[in-house]
Structures are given as structure tokens and as C-alpha cells.
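A reminder before we start the practical. When you read a complex entry, don't treat the lines as separate problems. The point of joint prediction is that each chain is placed relative to the others, so the output describes one connected object in space. Small molecules and nucleic acid strands, if listed, are placed in the same frame. In the example below there are two entries. Take a minute to note the order of the lines before looking further.
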Amino acid sequence: MINEAARAGEVWRTRPAAERAEVLDRVADALLVAEEELWPVARDETALPEARLRGEITRSAVQFRLFADVLRDGGHVEAIIDHADASATPPKPDVRRMFQPVPGVVGVFAASNFPFAFSVAGGDVASALAAGCAVVVKAHPGHPALSRRVAEVIKSALPDPDLLGLVEGLEAGRELVRHPLVSAVGFTGSLRGGKAIQALINERPDPIPFYGELGSVNPVVVLPSALADPVRLAEGFAASLTLGVGQFCTNPGLLFVPDDAELLKAITAAVAATTGGAMLTPAIREGFETGASSLDGRLTELARGLAGPIEGAVAPRVYTADLTTFSMGLPELAEECFGPSAIVVTYQEISDLPEVLRNLPGSLTATVHSADPVEAAPLVPDLARLAGRVIWNGWPTGVAVTWAMHHGGPWPASTTPMHTSVGATAIRRWQTPVAYQDLPDALLPAELREDNPLGIPRRVDGVVSVA
Amino acid sequence: MINEAARAGEVWRTRPAAERAEVLDRVADALLVAEEELWPVARDETALPEARLRGEITRSAVQFRLFADVLRDGGHVEAIIDHADASATPPKPDVRRMFQPVPGVVGVFAASNFPFAFSVAGGDVASALAAGCAVVVKAHPGHPALSRRVAEVIKSALPDPDLLGLVEGLEAGRELVRHPLVSAVGFTGSLRGGKAIQALINERPDPIPFYGELGSVNPVVVLPSALADPVRLAEGFAASLTLGVGQFCTNPGLLFVPDDAELLKAITAAVAATTGGAMLTPAIREGFETGASSLDGRLTELARGLAGPIEGAVAPRVYTADLTTFSMGLPELAEECFGPSAIVVTYQEISDLPEVLRNLPGSLTATVHSADPVEAAPLVPDLARLAGRVIWNGWPTGVAVTWAMHHGGPWPASTTPMHTSVGATAIRRWQTPVAYQDLPDALLPAELREDNPLGIPRRVDGVVSVA
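Here is the predicted structure of the whole assembly.
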């Protein structure tokens, strides 16, 4: 399978970016055409509701289309041209640099919690195909039938079906990471899973890049000026906490609030009014129960929602602690508990926050609620150090698929914090630069030819130029 | 030392790019001012000649100045702005992304063969300081007095001398790699040294990036159309092979040539006319003798230069083999032998070359000599796969310090082939992105404010715009 993918990739990497863009658009079309067939398969395997699954198919299609736009723009190759300078000491040659697809095959480990958008039809696959790479996906065991069917749908839109491979099972995943033709690995999942893959990669003779997005606690800081409407704040928190039964890597697991009785009362009421639901898999449910229960003896339960009528459903749970108790419980209290659970930490003074923020592990997001930029200003650098995305007066769930999005963060949120798994720059993970020195124009890739036939943005002699 | 550097870095990272640029220019000035004092210190420790050392001080200054230009341009932060779109489904927030310096301290292992330009005053240090990071350098034991003196010169130009630390000795190097405040490591040196550092990093709880540039064999392919002037070709090869007593990571260690008696005769004569010299350290000399001697029984010696009058000097040596013999001796025959040694491999047909090129390990450079782009065209993709820089009718030694330069290559040339240790994009290694979602303009870094006060190139709503 990996050998076949590598062979197909040899052709794919030579195709012009515009042609790859057309293929990505066709994949998006194929996913949307298959929507009626696909969402019930996903529902049966994940317990996720119809509206969410339909929305996620759209998100998958949008991701393929974004990378089609990226290819048409051409900025992803980061073309840089330095003309020769014979008068320099020593004389400077003509040097032209651009990104090329990484050699071989990209391995992708699918996530459980987004059966479309972070799985076989996910951003890792879309960005790797866009870069010009063949991909082999290790299916998530939480939705095997869906994985197979989605792979078929995507293959039907590819010029060579071998460009996308699908493997199943732990051992096949290990083989994928070890295979000499696999040159980069993407992963979305747990810290434990990510560490296991990193350990396998560390055994390889060649240190290939591992782009793991491992989730996080996503701290939210509520500043005193944000207390004007405590009910709205509490309801926003409860909604973000319980969205998708809390099964998002951007789930708000830590809320720092002023020690304000009205706000705590509002949070209690808002969380009590929520309904949880069934979790994706029995293992995830067990992990949630174990993680949440470990807080029972240590912290005070502030509020509990309803489990709802579905068998095996879990109830949202929120604990509380003051800043001192919480700080003394670090780092354990800042470990992610995947599911609808959070800790509300009460503080007395804003000036008490920086120290605890600096002691938190890296997160994908950090949020501040405030009505006053001057009040929030001193905290922003700490939040930007703590997380890959800083959010103002919003909630961390919901990761827009755009050019500027960064979905990554300091360890343990990401294994390579420089890279993102969502947004246009996700394509960079599957590229590597080549510089061409003094090559005749006829031998250069179109992106680097003197007359810029593709009209892409380039840096020429140190200056960015737009066609 | 590392703690002090981290503290100094906390301030440095907050300084505007323009201010950091001024500091880099001052470092360049200070190095040039100290030239008369520094080059004799280097000569006494490295046996390198005056002209070379003076040139290298200039190169170091040029590197600091290039990164000052990079900072003034502002493109290194890769500012991307997506305005909010309330009409989208779901509504899109305002997202603005840019690179920030990595947290903590950058660790740099200096190389032996460039006592200025890849050592304490090297590109790793210049690019990391430019990014906004504090640096601690592990001095190379080949030039300890110079390392200390250069560190003093650089510190004298820094706003806080603690921004640059210097440690010496193997154990201090290990501590540097293991230290929790070190967030990225740069290295230029041997494959063995690089593997040792990678192993230490693999033991860390957090998988920090390791940017190792480990050298390579730098294959050169001579095509039949290039045989018009065999003497010029042979002299170019011999000069590149013996430059700096062959102690360059871009030294041409493999030359594929048509089985042409005249060319082989010219190479023999050109190499016989060379003089080697003293090597940088006794260990490097021993490594060269062992490596070259291991070929004695296996391959035919084609030519040998003179050692020259200096005690302990080595003589350049060139071996030869036909393509079949060479191919059967892979991968051992493609291992780098650091010093003035090469293998000239004779081939019969151009069509025999792609297979052997695909079996070579990754290199920093791959060169083709040809008078006919049509003849060379089929090989260019293989060369671009094999190496990070493809050179036309030139020689691999000499790495221009420019915007487009890429000095890196597939493993084992680099541990992270996506990155370069020379050229403007080397700064990226010490940066990590942050996205700001819906932040008020007043809380955004200047690079992301709506009115673009710094006038930097940015991508706005998907389109690259130049101020």
C-alpha cells in the first residue's frame, strides 16, 4: 500500500499546482455529493447528531477548497529570487529557492472526534495532497466503516486512487511510522498516542518530522470588567464546554474568574441547565469518568449538568478551586480531561494571574474576557506565550478554516509548535525547500522562471513583489 | 548562564524589530573593528590562513547585516490577516497570525571549520538574536580562545551581555541540550555529533526542534556536453576539492564523469598539482586519514596532490571507480570523508545515472556540468530530490549569504531538511506562530495592526499586499 502510494506520488508531485487545485475542488464536490450517504454512516459509528455531521462534511469540503485556493495563489512555495551580482565580493550567483513536496509518502493518523474534518477527509490529508504528496491514513477505530467509505469517495476524485491509502489497526499504524518511504507524519489525538508515535519515530535512522496535535486545557481568563453581564458569560462558557459533549481539543477546561458570587451562581445555573450525551467511544467515556472523578476528592464540585436520556451518556461537570489551591495542584490539575469537564479557578487580583499562567502547560488557545483593553494589556504577552491562538471575548471551540488560522501551541499542545494543522499554512508541513543556483531559465520550475508565468507572489532581490 | 540568558531574552523579545536590527548592525561593526585583533587568534588555533580568516570575519559581519535587513523588511514574521466575515456559515472571526520568537533560550553548537561564520559569530547566533531570542553557544574545542574573545566582542555590542552565553566542554554541551529553558538547538558538525545530540533531545519530555547541519558528499555530475574544455573542468574540480584543505560541508566528494580518457588525464594532472595543508585539529586529520585509507584497497587511486611543507599536513587524494563498482559499494562509498578526498565515478550512458543518484544519501548540494539544458533536463528532478541546492556549471563550495540561499538537505545532510542554516529564512527556525482572534487593535503587535504602521508585507484576506 505504501509502495503503491509512493509510486502514485512520483507522478502527482510533478503536476502543475493549478491541476492539483482542480483535483482538490473535485474532492470537495465528491464529498458534498455523498453527504446524504455519508452522514448516517458517521452517526451510527460516532453518536454525533445529524446537523453536526452535515456541518462537518461542509467543513471538510471547505478545507479542500481552501487548499485549492492556496495552490492557485502560489505563495505556498515561498519563491525567493536573488539575481547574480558579479560586482559583489565574493561575486554572488543567481539563487532561486522554492518549496517542493517532501519525498515519499505522508502518514496521517485520523482523530476520533471529527470523523470527517480531522479524519480521512481532514485537513492533514487535504494539505498533504495539495503539497503534492501521496498520503496513507491510519483510520481511527472509532469509525472504521465511515473511514473506508470516505476513502472511496476521495479516491473517486483523484487522478490515481493509489494517492490515498487507508490502513487499519495498531500494527498497521506502527508499520506506517517505521516505513522508510514515509517522510512525515501527522497526528491528531491524545498526549499518550502522540508520545507513542514520537517514540517510534525516535527509533528510525532518519529523524522525520512528526506533526502531532495533542489537545490542551485552553485556559480562559475572565477579567473584572467583563462581569457586567454574568449570565451571558456563564451561558457562553457552558455552551462552549458542552459543545459536542466536550469532545474538542479546544474545549475550555480552565476558567479563571474573579471571586464574584453572582458570576459563580450564574455558572452553576448555566452548567446545571446543560445536557451531556453519549461519548464517541467507550474508551473515551472511561477516560472522561476517570479524569473527572480524580478531581472529586481534591476540588469542590460547583455544578453538574444532566446526562440526558441516551444510554451511557455522561453529565457535564464543573469543579472549583481558589487560585492557591489550584496552583498547588499543578501540573496535575492542568491535564486535559477530554470531555465536558472544567475547573473554575477564582482569583482575587489580576496581578496574581501572570505567575499561574506561566506555570500552565502549553495550550492550543488562551482566551481573555474583558471590556477594557487597558486592563487586559499586561496579560496578552503571557497568553501569547501560553498558546498558539489568543482569543478576545469569545470561546475557544470553533477553529475557522482561513489563511491566518493557527491551530497549534507549545508542548504538549503540539509536538512541533511552529506548525498548524488548520489553515492555509498547514501545507508547509509537507514541503521542503530547494535552491537552484545559476540554472538556465528552461530548467527552472515555472514558479522560479524570470517572467513569472504563474503570476505568483515572490521575493525578488529582497523585495516582495506581487504579479 | 542559561537562566541569565533566559532573563535577558525576556526583555529582548519585546524590543521592536527595528531596534534589534540596529543592534545586529552594531555587532557587525564590532566584529569588523576587531578584525586585526581576531584573525591572528584564529590563525593560531586553526592553521587557517590570514586571507581566509579576514574574509570569514567579513562574512560574519555580512550575516549580521543580512538579518538586520530581514528585520527591517518585516516579512520574517509572515503576517497574515483575515478580516471577520459575519455573513459566512459559521461566521468567521477576525484572525491575525504572525511569528514570535520561540520562548526561552536557543542553544547553538559551533562548528570547527568556520571559526567565525559558523561559530560564535555565526549564522545560527545572528539569526537567533534577530528572531528575538537569547543564545547560549557551546564553543568548539578547536578554537577556545577565539570563541571567548569573539563572545566578548559581540557582548560589547548587545544591550545586555547576558543575551549571549558561552559554555565549553562536552558536559556543558549535554547540559545545554537537556536544560528545560532551552527551546531549540542548532548544530553544524559531524553525523556522529548530530546523532548524539538528537539522542539527548529524544530523552527530553518536550520534543524541542533540533536543526543539525551534518555535511554531505555533494555529488557533481559531468555530462558529455561539458567535455569541451576538460582542463578547465578538472582545474575547477581540484580547486573546489582542496579549498580550505577540503574542510567544507559542501566539498565535492563525488564526481560522476563520462569514461573519457582526456578528462581523467586532466583530473589526474590538476589534482597532482594541488597542495593540501594542515587540518583544523588532530582528530579531523585522523578522521581524514582513516576515511581515505579505507578506500585504498577497494578503489583505484587516480591522483594524489602534495601535502606541502607544514608538519602534519595531508595530501589531497582522488580515487576512481566505474559506476557498477561504485554502486555495489553503496552506501559506504557515499559516506562523507571530511577533507580533500573524492571519488571520480565513470559512467557510460546518461541513462545509467538516475538509478545511482536515487540511491545516494541526501546532500547539501548536487551539481551538474553541461552545455546543453536539454541534455540535463531529465536529471534535474533527481538532483533536486537528492539535495537542498542544485548548481549549474559551478562548484558547491561557497555558500552565498542571500535571501534565497538554502543550506540544508535531505537526511543525513540535515536533521530538519525544511530549514536552512544560511540565508534569510534561517531566522524561521527560532520562531513560532501566534494567531490573535478578534483582538482590539490596541492589543495587537504593531505588525498586525490594521494600519500596518511598520509598512511590512502582509497577506490580507488571502492576498499578498506590499506597503
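Discuss with your neighbour: The radius of gyration of chain A is 24 Å. What might explain this?
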